[in-house]
Amino acid sequence: MMNRRVVVTGLGPVSSIGTGIDVFAAALRAGRSGITPIASFDTTGFVTERAGEVHEFQPYDMVSRIDPAEWGRSSLFAAAAARLALTDAGALDVAAGSARVGVCMGTTSGESQVVERLTEHWLRDGYRPTPRSLARQMPAGRVAEAVSRELDLRGTTTTVSTACSASNYALGYAFDAIAAGDQDYMIVGGADSVCRWAHAGFYRLGALAAERCAPFDRDRAGVITAEGGVALFLESLDSAQARGARIYCEVLGYGLTCDAKHPTAPDAASVARCMRLAHRDAGIKPDEVDFICAHGTATPANDAAEYEAVREVFGDRLPPMSSVKSMLGHTMGAASGFSAVAAALALSSGFLAPTINHLTTDPAMPGLDVVPNRARPAQAQIVQVNGFAFGGNNAITILGRLA
Amino acid sequence: MTVTTDLPGITTVLGISGWGVVSPYGLGADEFTAGLRAGRDVTVDAAELTDEPVPHPRAYALAGFRARDHLGRKGTSFLDRRTAFAVLACRQALADSDLVVDDDNRERVGVVLGTSVGSLQSTSDYSRDTHVQDKPYLVNPILFPNTVLNCAAGQAAIWHGLRGVNATLAGGGTATITALRYARTMLGRGRADALLVGAVEEYTPHMAWAGSPGSDGAPATAGGEGGAVFLVEDATAMRAAGRTPSAEIVAVDVAHTGAGMDVATALAGLVRRMLRDAGVAATDLARVLSCGAAEEERALDATVGRQADRSSVTGVAGDCPTAAGALQVAVLLAHHRRTPDDGSLSLIVAGSPDGTVGAALLRGTGHGSRNHR
Question: Which intervals hold domain Ketosynthase family 3 (KS3) (chain A) (predicted)?
Fold first, then answer.
C-alpha cells in the first residue's frame, strides 16, 4: 500500500486567548489566560461562573460564503478556523472546488447552544410549532459540513463525535487518508460551544473548578468549561515541497484505544496502551519524545491517570508535559486540536507552551515537569499529543520536526 | 503549483460476518428478514410512545420497547433509548457472526457508530433541568455522559468488552456510509481486525419535532427509529482464515457538494466514479436503494437510470434519516439472507441537506448467514 509522508502547513485557532496563529502563538508564549466571567448564559443560581468564552468571535467578519444566521456557533467556529488555516497555508487556490480536499472535524456536543435554544422554546411554548430554522441547525454533522461549504471543498467530509479527544481522532483519520492516497489535502480540527448543561454537569460530577484550571497541581479543582474552534491544514510532504509551503511539522502516527470500562472514569492502563500504539505507529521509542501536550484537564482523576500512564510508558525519564487547558479551559471537541497546534509550535517555533496557574506540583507525581507558568525556549524534535474522553475514547497523535 | 494524484487509496473490501437490527419489522437479523418478507404495516400509534403531541400520528417505532427486557435489569436503568438500541444491535451482530471475541483479540475489535445529535432526549432533558430545578446545577451527574454524542459507542464497548478503535461519527442520513468508510480506513491501515459499524436513532417527541418538516407547518410524515449494526472485517483476511462473509462492501465513499450545494450532481458524480472504478455497469445492479430524497432520485436518474430496480428505504424506516441509512444496508442483507445463492450487486446512496453525499456497493456472497458455512 502507498504510504506518503504527511505534513502540517496551516494553523487556524479561534480561541479565548486569541484568533489567528500569530496572536495565538504570542498568547501561548506569554502564558495568557482566557478564563473570564460567563457572558453567553445567565449564571444566576450557579455556584461557579467562569468559562473560556471567545467573546470577540465575529462570525460575520470571518466567514464569507456561509450565512452565519443559518449556522450554530460550533459550526461557525469550525468554518472560521478552517478559513484561517487554509489562508495560513497559502492554499486558498489549491482547495476551492477540489474533490481531493477533505474535511474532518471533531466535536463533543455539536450545536449544544442550538439544543439549548430549542429546549427553552419547548419549555416556554411547547412543541407546536417547533421553529424549523432553529431545528435545521442542530445536526452535529454540520460542524464539518460548514467547513466544506465555506471553502468549497468536495472531498470526504466527516464529523467525529468522540467527545474530548475528537480532534485527535480527526488528525489521525486525515493522516491515514493522505498517507494512503484517499485524499491529497485535509482540513482537520474541532469545535465546541460553552453551554449551560455542560457547566452544570461538570459541577455535579465534582469536576468543575471555580476560578482557574491548574493541571497537575496539588490543589487542582477541575475543569473550566470553554469553547472555540481550531483547524490544521494537512497535505503530503511532496505536495508541500512542490508548492514551496512553510512546513510546521510532520504527522508521524497515532494510536486509538477504548477503555471499555466506565463512561467517565479514566483508565491508566488503556491510556498507556494508547501511547504504545502511537509510538509504534510513528516508529519511535519513548525516549525520543521531547515534549507531551497533555490532556491535562485538571480533574483529580484525569491528571492522576495521565501521570500514571506516562510513568508506565516512559519510566523514570519523563519528558516535560504541559497542558494548554490551563490557559484555554476545556474546549472539549477542539481541545486536542489546540494541543496539536501547541505541539506544532513547539516543533516549528522553538518554545514549549507552559502550564499556567501552577503553584505546587502534585506530590504524588514525582519527576513531573509541567513547564510551570512560563513558556520555555526549547527545540523539540518529537511531540506527543494526548487526548482522552468520556466513553473511554483515547487518541494520541505524534508530531515531529521535519528531518 | 499543486500536486494532484489519482491514487487507488485504500481498497480493502469489507466482509460482513454478522449483523444486528432494531426495527419494528423485527429485532435481530432473522426476525427482521421474516418481518420484511411478511410486509405488514408496522407503524404504531405515536400515543403508544409518548403523551406529548407529535407532528404525525403514526411512527415506525418500537412501542413498548424496554432495555431491561432485552439486556436485563443490571446496568440498564440509566441507558437512554438510543444507547439501549446500540448495545442490543451490537450484541445481535456479535451473536450472528462466527467471530469469537475473547481476551486474545478484544483490543483489536471496536465500534464505529453513526449519529445525528446523539440522544436528543438526553441532552434536551438535561438542558431543561438547568431551568426547572431549584438550582440550575441540580442535574443528575449519572446522566451527564448521556448528553455526549459518543455515549452509545462507549456503552457498547463496555457491555461487550471491546477495547479496539471506538468512534462516533455524526452525519444523520449519511452517517452509516461515513462509518463504513471510516471502518474501511481503520481495517485497511491495520488499526483494527473487526469493527461493529452502523447507526441507531430513537423516537421521542424531541426528535420527532426537531427532525420533521412538519415543524414549520409543512405536511409531516410518519416518524421512525431503530437502526442496524454490521460486524465488518477484511474480507480477504476472512477468506484466508477459511471463513466466508455473508456479504461484502466492495466500495464505499463520501464526498461533498462544496459551496454549490447541488446534492444531485455531487451524488451522481460519486456514483459514476464508484461504478467506473469497480468496473460495474448500471445494468449489473440487481437493486438500488435510496433514502427517498428527491435529490437522490435525480442522481440515480442520471446514473443508473429508471430501468434499474430502484426503491427507497422510507417505507421501512419512516422519517428518520439516521436509522434509514443503516436500514438500507440491513434491507440488502435481509435479501441475501433469504436468497443465499444470490451473489448479486446492490447500490445504496444517501445525501444530507447540508451537502454530504455517500454511496456504497454491496455484493452477496452466496452465504447469507452463518447457517450456510
Answer: 3-401
Q: A134, A183, A243, A258: which to substitute to probe chain B, counting the most B Cβ within 10 Å? A: A258
Mean pLDDT on A321-333: 98
Kindly report the nearest CA distance between residue B69 and chain A, in angstroms.
22
Q: A18-19 and A6-15: which strand pairing?
A: antiparallel
- Is residue B344 within 8 Å of residue B364, measured between CB atoms? yes
CA distance A320 to chain B (A): 28
Note the pLDDT of residue A109: 96
Superfamily of domain B247-368 in the CATH hierarchy: Thiolase/Chalcone synthase (3.40.47.10)
Question: With the C-alpha atoms ordered B223, B224, B225, B228, is the resulting torsion angle positive or negative?
Answer: negative
- CATH class of the domain whose range is B14-240: alpha beta
Q: Does B117 touch chain A (CB under 8 A)?
A: yes
Angle at the Cα of A13 from the Cα atoms of A336 and A73, rounded to 5 degrees? 90
pLDDT digits (tens, 9 = 90+) for A250-297: 999 999 999 999 999 999 999 999 999 999 999 999 999 999 999 999
**Alpha helices in chain B, H assignment, sequence order:** 29-38, 67-71, 81-96, 120-132, 151-160, 175-188, 205-211, 235-240, 263-278, 294-303, 314-317, 321-338
Which residue in this structure is represented by grid cell 457508530? B113
Percent of chain B with pLDDT strictly greater than 90: 89
Which residues on chain A are in Cβ contact (under 8 Å) with B182? 158, 173
Cell 510513528: give the residue.
Answer: A282
CATH number at residue A313: 3.40.47.10
For residue B163, the chain A residue with the least C-alpha distance is A258
Q: What is the grid cell recorded at B91?
A: 450484541
How do the domains of chain B map onto residue ranges?
14-240, 247-368
Domain boundary among A242, A263, A284: A242
- Say yes or no to pLDDT of A384 above 80: yes
| pLDDT value of residue B342 | 80
**A309: containing domain:** 252-400
Phi-psi region of A356 (alpha: psi -120 to 50; beta: other; left: phi over 0): beta
Shortest CB distance from B9 goes to which of A45, A182, A205? A182
Looking at the complex, does the CB of residue B78 fall below 8 Å from at least one CB of chain A?
A: no
User: Is the same domain home to A186 and A315?
Assistant: no
| DSSP character string of B122-150 | HHHHHHHHHHHSSSTT---GGGGGGGSTT
A1, part of any domain: no
CA distance B46 to B57: 5
In chain B, what percentage of residues exceed pLDDT 70?
95
- Of chain A residues 174-233, which have a CB less than 8 A from chain B? 176-177, 179-184, 195-206
Q: Is the separation of the CB atoms in B359 and B348 below 8 Å?
A: yes
Q: Is the CB of residue A143 less than 8 Å away from at least one CB of chain B?
A: yes
A117-165 residue pLDDT tens: 999 999 999 998 899 999 999 999 999 999 999 999 999 999 999 999 9
pTM score, whole prediction: 0.97
Three cell numbers, residue B26? 423485527
B3 neighbourhood in chain A, CB within 8 Å? 184, 236, 238-239, 242-243
Between residues 4 and 63 of chain B, which touch chain A (CB distance below 8 Å)? 4-5, 7-10, 52-55
| A181 and A86 in a common domain | yes
Q: Is the ipTM of this complex over 0.95?
A: yes
